[in-house]
Write a structure and sequence with these properties.
- The chain is an alpha/beta fold and about 260 residues long.
- Helix content is about 45%, strand content about 20%.
- The chain has twelve helices and eight strands.
- Strand 7, helix 10 (about 220-230) and strand 8 form a beta-alpha-beta unit.
- Helix 2 crosses helix 3 (about 95-105) and helix 5 crosses helix 7 (about 165-175).
- The protein is globular.
């Protein structure tokens, strides 16, 4: 797991396997380790790169969370690929990682060979979503602990069936509680400032797969259907899971991803 420095930001990158590269971008408020099942499954045939965004996992927090934007993070990902001698890759993004994948497509189109968007959406935040993100930032500035915010957030990500699986819930909590307050605030800032990507995707010329959990309450099936129609890509609806299908049913997610990567 190399620690790289890109534009004065230290970034932790999981780098395993060999072959056609696949870059994994994690959901909020998790970390690169959320992709462990996928990296394990694909590393025999692909070079798997999973990036801890600033302040998540093993990447130190940003110096100025208020300056965070997805465009800057896209530049960070492009800088990681430069240092690892990767020209272009399949980009896999879940939730917030999907927003970041779209910014890569917007600002670094040449790096995106194929696109996999899981439980994410093209629309920018509405006023209510912006208000909620700002409220969380204010809680953190007021001394709230990441762990307390993570508890409520995780409960909204998983389906009811998944919430009954104690080991899975504990694992997702551990992934979320690894974030720093600075990382959490920066991610909220980047997400609430992100642009709408509807036109971007409509005009995109990229092979794409859209995956969504049938029971996702954060970005429901309607959002995934919009992505599919904009990208003219494939859509896989995974039954009985919520916002984190790659963790809730990794075998089914891996099967869909493997089929897409193989071109079948």
């Amino acid at each position: 797991m190399p620690l790289l420095e890109v534009s004065s930001q230290v970034v932790n990158v999981v780098d395993r396997g060999g072959g056609d590269p696949v870059v994994f971008l994690h959901a909020f408020p998790l970390q690169a380790a959320m992709w462990d099942y996928q990296v394990e499954a694909l590393a025999g045939d692909h070079r798997c790169l999973a990036i801890d965004l600033p302040g998540f996992g093993q990447s130190p927090g940003p110096a100025d969370p208020s300056a965070a934007t997805l465009e800057r993070w896209a530049g960070l990902v492009a800088g990681v690929l430069d240092q690892l001698d990767v020209d272009a890759a399949t980009i896999v993004g879940a939730s917030m990682g999907g927003y970041l994948a779209m910014e890569l497509l917007r600002h670094h189109r040449e790096r995106v060979r194929q696109l996999v968007l899981a439980d994410t959406k093209a629309r920018s935040d509405d006023p209510e979503a912006t208000r909620r993100r700002t409220a969380q930032q204010n809680e953190l500035r007021g001394g709230a602990e990441v762990g307390s915010l993570a508890k409520g957030t995780v409960e909204g990500l998983l389906s009811a069936d998944s919430m009954s699986r104690t080991e899975l819930v504990g694992y997702v909590h551990a992934l979320a509680e690894g974030a720093t307050p600075e990382g959490w605030m920066a991610a909220l800032e980047a997400m609430k400032r992100r642009p709408d990507s509807m036109l971007l995707l409509r005009q995109a010329d990229v092979r794409a797969l859209v995956v969504v959990g049938e029971l996702d309450r954060v970005t429901p099936i309607a959002e995934a259907m919009t992505l599919r129609s904009l990208l003219k890509g494939e859509l896989v609806v995974m039954p009985n899971v919520g916002h984190l299908p790659n963790l809730e049913d990794p075998l089914a997610f891996n099967d869909a991803l493997t089929q897409f990567l193989s071109g079948s």
